[in-house]
Design goal:
84 residues, mainly beta, Urease, subunit C, domain 1, 5-stranded mixed sheet, 2 helices, 13% helix
Length: 84
């Protein structure tokens, strides 16, 4: 797994704190550093300006859709059934 540095993102950390601009460094698939203006190294770098970065979050879509049978148009999804 390659090392990654995500620069200039709007970080949402899931604690309820306000979002903040920072960089996120990942080594061997593990978040090792979050902070402003991290020094660049030999890792792959991505510019996340104007993007949200949510370090440590899992992909939420499948989990949010689980009560709906995996599809927002499922007849088992109460929220969608009310909208029909």
């Amino acid at each position: 797994m390659s090392d990654i540095l995500i620069k200039n993102g709007t970080v949402v950390d899931g604690t309820g704190a306000n979002a903040f601009t920072a960089d996120v460094r990942v080594r061997d698939g593990v978040i090792v550093e979050v902070g402003p203006n991290l020094a660049t190294g030999d890792e792959r770098m991505f510019d996340a300006s104007n993007c949200y970065v949510c370090p440590g979050f899992i992909e939420a879509i499948p989990i949010m859709m689980a009560p709906c049978g995996g599809s927002p148009t499922s007849t088992r999804c109460p929220a969608m059934a009310r909208r029909r």
